[in-house]
Amino acid sequence: MDKVRKHIIFHGMVQGVGFRYTAYYAAQRCGVTGWVRNLPDDTVEAEVEGTREDIDMMIQDIRRGRFIQIDYMDTKDIPAEGSREFRIR
């Protein structure tokens, strides 16, 4: 399957609830690479790369986080970079 890369801004209760670490471990489980970071406006920004199915599985895994509440996501497809790991910035 072809790999894709998505730029995502997560809105909702996504800071101060372990979102970045939840995303990190979800990425490890789903084989997704890229990065995640907090933004000053209380959103979380991420770029994730993998198959569409793996990325969808990662997002579903994040949604199961105990205190995390994703109200909506701004998502844009961007060119794949061939990243090899997932990092917290």
Could you characterize what this model shows?
The protein is an alpha+beta fold. It has a single domain (4-79), classed as Alpha-Beta Plaits, CATH 3.30.70.100. Helix content is 27%, strand content 40%. It contains 2 helices and 5 strands, in the order βαββαββ. It has helices at 19-30, 52-63, and strands at residues 4-13, 33-38, 44-50, 69-78, 86-88. It has a 5-stranded mixed sheet, covered by helices on one side. Strand 2 and strand 3 (44-50) form a beta hairpin. Helix 1 (19-30) runs antiparallel to helix 2 (52-63). The protein is globular, with a radius of gyration of 12 Å. The model has no long low-confidence stretch (mean pLDDT 96).
Q: How far do the termini sit from each other? A: 28 Å
* SS elements, strand count: 5
The global form is globular
- Total helical segments: 2
User: Spatial order of the strands in the main sheet?
Assistant: 4-1-3-2-5
| Percent of residues in helices | 25-40%
Rg measurement, Å: 12 Å
The name of the CATH topology is Alpha-Beta Plaits
β content, as a range? 35-45%
CATH class: Alpha Beta
By secondary-structure content and strand pairing, the structural class works out as alpha+beta
The secondary-structure element order is EHEEHEE
Q: What does the main sheet amount to?
A: 5 strands, mixed
Poorly predicted ranges: none
* Mean pLDDT over all positions: 96
Q: What is the CATH architecture annotation?
A: 2-Layer Sandwich
Summed up, the domain count is 1
